[in-house]
Description:
The protein is an alpha+beta fold. It has two domains: 5-161, GAF domain (Beta-Lactamase, 2-Layer Sandwich); 183-349, Orthogonal Bundle (Hypothetical protein af1432), CATH 1.10.3210. The protein has helices at residues 21-33, 39-54, 81-90, 92-101, 142-182, 190-204, 209-221, 231-234, 242-248, 251-259, 266-274, 295-310, 321-330, 338-349, and strands at 58-65, 69-76, 105-109, 113-121, 125-133.
Amino acid sequence: MVIDAARGGSLNSNSVFQGDYVSLLRNISKTALNPASNIIELLENTLRVMGDSLGTNLCAIYEASRSDGFRFMCGYKLESSCEADCLIQLVRKHAEDSLQNHKITFTHIEGSKLLYIMPLITDRTLGVIILGFNNEIHTNEMEILASISDILSTTIDRFFLQQQISRQYFSTVKSLVVAIEAKDVYTQGHSQRVSEYSKIIGRHLMLKDEVIKEIEITGLVHDVGKIGVSDQLLTKPNRLTDAEFDSISQHPEIGVKILQPLNVSENVMLGTFLHHKRYDLKGYPLEAGIDKLPLIPAIIGVADSFDAMTSERSYKKAMTKQNAVAELKLFRGTQFHPDIVDIVEELIDSNKL
């Protein structure tokens, strides 16, 4: 039977694919639209759903490169990277034919396994996806594979477009931070230093590279909300009134609104929103909705205060690093996370900060 998506056609009993055609594609599309921090995570999640739904015995995606040929991106039900390398070598000619002629190709390999090679193409050549089956796919079911190829092609293209937009937006945000700090000679370089201090603390904690990257980004953008605060308040040399303090304490919430269009992780958003929240959960924002201060804002909060104390400001002289550590220790376990304070002290004593 010809499968008609508009009619919500189901698959016949002899089909390799079991279940409802429309539901199958909807499930794959939904997974491909889910948020992910990187393209590999997104594709792995999609391959897992796709492989289980289609009953494949292997799935693999390869990026097409003019210089390197085909580069393995991710797979499902592959035992090793060696298997991934061998797989593309077995079907290289079919993969090249698939891309050149914009068509699905297939070949037999050992054990009567069939490999279907599908092109991933939008307005540019992206790569190929290889699906392995134990049985041959009916000719009238090829449109399912064609639809999957279209879904994945669009997913990859959309992800990279979003990444490009995010990079441009992030560059704009960093420029805003520089503009904010340029208003006050005393705060120039503050965000860069907070980012660097926080990164050193994260490495000392032996956090994963992706978490350290989130910490670095949070340090750079944590004060971006100050773009919505009056210049007079930011540079005021005297003590702030209660009303002025309430105004300036809005900058974490403003910062989160600025970052929302940016494809940043939840950790970066939380770090920006909560970097003035105390370890004992006092401080602002008042309505944080948490029962424990997350690690990233805890790190940023200590690094932010450390830099503020060791930098000269319009209303105070700079402290020595040792005096700043002594001040942090006074509020260890109340304002500041005790473990982070201990790490800062250790880093200072070993001349690593």
